[in-house]
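worker-03 picked up job from queue 'complexes'. Input manifest follows; two sequence lines, order preserved.
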Amino acid sequence: MSLRDQKSFLSNIHPFELLTEEQMDKCIRHMDIAYYPKDEVLITPENIPNHFFVIIKGIVHEYKEDEILVDYHYQDSFDANSLIYGKTNNSFKVYEDLICYEIEKTIFLELIENNDGFKNFFLNNLVNKFQTLKDKEYASELSSFMIAKVEDTILHPPCIVEKGTKLIDAIDKSMQYETSTIIVKFDTHKYGIITDSLLKIKVLLEGRDLSIPVEEIAISPILTVNLDDYLFEALTLLIKKNIKRVGVVNNEGEIQGTLEQIDVLSHFANHTYVVDSKIKNARTLKDLKEASGELVDTVKTLNAKGVKVHHISNLIGQLNTKVYKKIYKFVVPEELQNNACLIVMGSEGRNEQIIKTDQDNALVVKDGTDVEQYRPYMQQITETLIDFGYPPCEGNIMVSNPFWCKTVNDYKKDTARWIEAPDMQNYMDLAIFFDSFAVAGDKELLINLKDDLFNKLHDKDVFMAYFARATLTFDTPSTVANFMTKTYNIDIKKTGVFPIVQGIRSLSLRERIRETTTVKRIKILQQKKILEAEMANELLEAFDVLNTLRLKAHLQKIQDSKKINNEIDTHSLGKIERDLLKDSFKIVNNFKKFITYVFKIDKIS
Amino acid sequence: MFKKLINSWQRKKLLDKKYEYLFDNPLKDEYVCLDCETTGLNPKKDEILSIGAVRIKQNKILMRKTLNIFVKPSKEITEESIKIHQIRPIDLQKAIEPKEAILNLLDFIGNRPIVGYYIKFDIAMISKYTKEYIGVSLPNHQIEVSSMYFKTRKRSSDYEFVDLKFDTIMKNLDIPELGKHDALNDALMTSMIFLKLRDLSPANSTFYTG
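worker-03 finished. Artifact:
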């Protein structure tokens, strides 16, 4: 390979592109190309070679004793650790005829010494490795992991007035700032807001005088986002709270400006906003159906714009809740609405269903109210949802099923039965039910039920062990080669997503955590010191990677008009995606061991 | 025996005793793989435009010891040949005189066996020059990768056709393709073919006894 070819090969491999021209030349001057046939052992704890390997073609497996830990492919490199630390516990063996570059050890160490980016890549732990990859703009492959920050938008300079300012003077100042938003400073870090619509209601309608002090009508505290929050979080807040603007604060809590909904929307497609207002304005089920039908397009747009999958699911969850609320309002007679609570459960309850794959919902009816009068309406709700394109639940976990439409007391009997006489079905029902989230009606009914559930589980260690054991139901591959060579479709839900969800769910149930989304649960578990920060961060990263790959596969299947399932074609993954997937599986496998340990699952099986 | 005789006869014709080493017994497990780009396919009248060569030691292609030289042609290269070897006049700006190039090459090769694809042609081209400069043609042992490849192909009869095109061999052996029509890249790909075939029987015992 001419020098130029070698250079272009190497600079396509992270982190070699971080080398300076001079360092790259040096690297190239000190490397050879080697060929090793299948089964050749390259590195063992007893024999560490004097060079660093970069694969041009072929596959190498890293073993610990007999277990394959990692597999290396085209453009992968190894083994920095044994060179840096001068020792390794693992061995490396050629799995498929190998052609590779060999970079001289002394040169490799010299590069690490002299190039911080290069050094960080090899020395960092997994989480940092993810971060390094993400911080780099690998436009196409990593775009879905990237996202704009609030500070990237145009901020309107805030019109701030002190407490005690006369309203008329404040309005005058706002005219100079050419804004309709007046920020009232009550105290350090305490702000209120006056908007045009507030003036209309509180001043014009109520006939107040313009000489009153601003604090008399200002709404306080103003909702804010941080400068380095993701823009997407701001949008979610705007939609959730149904407001048009938020204040933007810096890390010291000082207002830096205001962010208008329109600014956020100019960053994303207008789509989200359009869907949101369509849902809001829908006056009939037909309108609503049309609006909710656009959710898939919204997901596509957001995904294409590089919005993080966690944020997409959050937003879709918000919109979805609104759809449920409206359906409930349209279908159930008004006098019945507040004596019951419509809940979504399972992945819908966790806000983790981006592309609709099924519906899990139920109705909790106040004790003493006749459940029968709700039945026809619940039937109608299920039919409406199916009509809206929410596929029916195979397990019939839907409000139309009398089992999932009953009084608080009846649910309590169920949870007691699930705990006392558990079988696989009961564990799954309990798992789904624990993830429930109230979308319409009287939310207190569900809160009551969860309290009851938590109390019943007090001191039920054996039950919890069985419940947690479901985390281990499906195998998680430890290498990519297993499916690179034979089957290259893997069920990403069974192998990766489910173990995280179920493990975290088990911990949350034991710790009485009411949050339903897996991401928030992980954060709370970390605060409670149930999970160490490192494991929590790794889980969040892995969960994000797995869901991103799953969403990508879902969208591809929709585009190809194929049936949606959770299989992903690993042959279609790029190098970085493959690395991230491998690392994620490693994290999932570690987490499984952790769950086995903390719930003492070994003791029951 | 016969070969020795020719060798010693050749040796006598050497103009410069400095090059006697070419006739020594070569080091074990070291090779040179080379490829030439030429103005045409007739060693009698065509000229070498560039030479790419790499050393191979055991299982390694020693990239840090490569040779990539461009040779000044005696006359302008024709448009026809530019199309084939893709060496434009501008590429020849850093070209050196043929004599310097060939002597450099001899130093690089030493007495190592020479590996190549249709290597006879390259050797014939180079020998044309060495005869002029040092009085002998290249005496090194030659290893032909296409015949190594031929021996590894399972055939139903002796008459069955085996496709020996470079691209076919590359593809069947799963060798990564580098940039084409660059003497050094060609030499490098040929080296990979050699290393891979060397491990396959029956070629193992048949070739490179040196």
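worker-03 released lock.
Chain B touches chain A at residues 59-64, 68, 174-176, 178-179, 182, 184-185, 188, 191-192, 195-196, 199 (CB under 8 Å).
The helical segments of chain B are 2-13, 79-85, 98-109, 119-134, 145-152, 166-173, 183-198, 203-206.
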